[in-house]
Amino acid sequence: MTGKEALETSEAQIAVHWQEEEYYYPSTKFIAQANMTDEKIYDRFSLDNFPNCYKEYADLLDWYEYWHTILDTSDAPCWKWFTGAKINASYNCIDRHLPKNKNKTAIHFVPELENEKVEHITYQELYVRVNEVAALLQDFAGLKAGDRVTLHMPMTAELPITMLACARLGVIHSEVFGGFSGRAAADRVVDSGSRVLITIDSYYRGGALIDHKEKADIAVEAAGKEGQIVDKVLVWQRYPGKYSSSFPMINGRDFFVNDLLKKYYGKRIEPVPMPAEAPLFLMYTSGTTGKPKGCQHSTGGFLAYAAGTSKYVQDIHPEDVYWCMADIGWITGHSYIVYGPLALCASTVIYEGVPTYPDPGRCWRIAQDLDVNIFHTAPTLIRTLRKVGPDEPAKYNYEFKHMTSVGEPIEPEVWKWYYNVVGKGKAVIVDTWWQTETGGFLCSTLPAIKPMKPGSAGPGMPGIHPIIYDEDGNVLPEGAGKAGNICIQNPWPGAFQTIWGNRDRYVSTYYAKYCKNKDSKDWRDWPYISGDAAVDAPDGYYRILGRMDDVINVSGHRLGTKELESAALTVFEVAEAAVVPVNDDIKGKVPDLYAALKSGILPSDELAKKISNALSAEIGSIAKPRNVWLVPDMPKTRSGKIMRRVLSAISNKKDVDDVMTLANPEIVEVITKIVQK
Ligand code: WTA
């Protein structure tokens, strides 16, 4: 899809997109306790005060040494924040809380099975466990600052424990979403150059104990074929002391963490003072090419931004019980389950399983039992809960002061159900727009200062100055109400530093298009390109319309169409594959896959299934297409490019519009018959 076509699509979307809504105001009760009620914060973070304004976020943390330069632009557009400073993320999330709060719960781990006990891990216990794991990683696994280690773990307390143990040593963690396949993990092991893989034997989802160890075997084998040798696989156990997997441990390669830990009982590891700009973690995400990119996040800048936004947008106080339902395998979990809340000494909830297991009341029971008062989830889940248990929340006696929506645009109708039924009309809502690349929120209201507007994320965060460009590089006037590419004019501390091992791709994807001068060391010449389309209303609130590039947002999960297409092409019979987004009431978008077969091969249901299974094996079950359509040929331009716009119109049952520019216009009717039969 060219940019022009994409923009036309988003202009068209606006016609069907929801209208501007009325404001909703926070209660005086909320305002009275809010962390940020000072409207002057927007002045303090104005462009005139940039970049020094970010000292206000950095001051939320403890530093070993302060920076000499707050923003170093000498390697533009690889921005360095707080250069010269030294900090440790593990220290900031744990040690510094001990004198006053060692008995406070840091993590509530809620197993999926309701008859299993919730684990309440105090800050002291977190300290002990993180130290012992850090000792193991250092001594047994031989890991040191700057090494990368791949984690392929589901939602379990051992995941943040492992992450924080890495951070203690300055080891760069790269956590892969547990639902991804072994092969997807292998790609990330290879790209990051990890020689240690940390996993778990099994975990619960939907009432079933999922065998997870097999994925490590697949990952190590596949990575080995590409020349990346994993010499140690560290295996946590869902039930310590008992092995819950049918895949044997490989002698000399696989080790039970729980066994090894006995040797490190009582060990303490001094946190390593890391340069602020040392990478803290990699988070792989999908883009416009087949290969996922490793977004490299810094230690000081990331943590300052996660802490600042958690404090002022999430309104987290140390006494709050905060539950973010994202998976730690995504950026939301890194910033807003682990690092942000723990840096602020909150109690963070980690839930192992499916939100509607065993029934649609589960979330609200957890909220009631733990007295959760801050709740954070994605529109897909809100839509699901509204569908399967619209009246459930009223049956439970929890009270939220604050709720977040993240990951996809939220329809005003869904927003209102969230507000009235889940929030019982008492909780504020923030609709937070951001990305894996950005480390933290870009647009959102500050809940005690700016009113809510259903369907709009809100203004730029303090210090974030959005700007909308059209395809030709013209800036759309503020409040124009026209769709365009939303960009950010200035750097900010949470932004990723580069794509791991691929600076050129970083520059070309995120900066090249609107860069004013490629030799410039001035940040003003390098607006950050988000890849999203948005509209700016006269009140300065942004409505995010969705991706402009070849990325499909399925239930808030980012899938690159190219990644799905290359997975389909691993099936021998497939000659060409094209993936398009289809609108879906619950998931927002779902992928439809079109495949043209090699000559002489006949379409069949088995073949369609084989292709669908290939997507699960290569990527993970989240990549399963809604439909696999086997078609005789693709609609193509005269230069041979597949016209995904046409396929998307067919899948979405919309008018295909002008097809006369196609090389093979007659195919449109043939495909329409197959799909809309
Ligand atoms: C989309 C998730 C509308 C957007 C934090 C973005 C949103 C992509 C919102 C990033 C929102 C995220 N409203 N759309 N509040 N938040 N998005 O990297 O298209 O998994 O580019 O980061 O999700 O997804 P990612």
From TrEMBL:
<dbReference type="InterPro" id="IPR042099">
    <property type="entry name" value="ANL_N_sf"/>
</dbReference>
<dbReference type="GO" id="GO:0005524">
    <property type="term" value="F:ATP binding"/>
</dbReference>
<dbReference type="Pfam" id="PF13193">
    <property type="entry name" value="AMP-binding_C"/>
</dbReference>
<dbReference type="Pfam" id="PF16177">
    <property type="entry name" value="ACAS_N"/>
</dbReference>
<dbReference type="GO" id="GO:0003987">
    <property type="term" value="F:acetate-CoA ligase activity"/>
</dbReference>
<dbReference type="InterPro" id="IPR020845">
    <property type="entry name" value="AMP-binding_CS"/>
</dbReference>
<keyword id="KW-0007">Acetylation</keyword>
<dbReference type="GO" id="GO:0016208">
    <property type="term" value="F:AMP binding"/>
</dbReference>
<keyword id="KW-0067">ATP-binding</keyword>
<keyword id="KW-0436">Ligase</keyword>
<dbReference type="InterPro" id="IPR025110">
    <property type="entry name" value="AMP-bd_C"/>
</dbReference>
<keyword id="KW-0547">Nucleotide-binding</keyword>
<feature type="domain" description="AMP-binding enzyme C-terminal">
    <location>
        <begin position="563"/>
        <end position="641"/>
    </location>
</feature>
<feature type="domain" description="AMP-dependent synthetase/ligase">
    <location>
        <begin position="96"/>
        <end position="492"/>
    </location>
</feature>
<comment type="similarity">
    <text>Belongs to the ATP-dependent AMP-binding enzyme family.</text>
</comment>
<dbReference type="Pfam" id="PF00501">
    <property type="entry name" value="AMP-binding"/>
</dbReference>
<dbReference type="GO" id="GO:0019427">
    <property type="term" value="P:acetyl-CoA biosynthetic process from acetate"/>
</dbReference>
<dbReference type="InterPro" id="IPR045851">
    <property type="entry name" value="AMP-bd_C_sf"/>
</dbReference>
<protein>
    <recommendedName>
        <fullName>Acetate--CoA ligase</fullName>
        <ecNumber>6.2.1.1</ecNumber>
    </recommendedName>
</protein>
<feature type="domain" description="Acetyl-coenzyme A synthetase N-terminal">
    <location>
        <begin position="44"/>
        <end position="93"/>
    </location>
</feature>
<dbReference type="InterPro" id="IPR032387">
    <property type="entry name" value="ACAS_N"/>
</dbReference>
<dbReference type="InterPro" id="IPR011904">
    <property type="entry name" value="Ac_CoA_lig"/>
</dbReference>
<dbReference type="InterPro" id="IPR000873">
    <property type="entry name" value="AMP-dep_synth/lig_dom"/>
</dbReference>
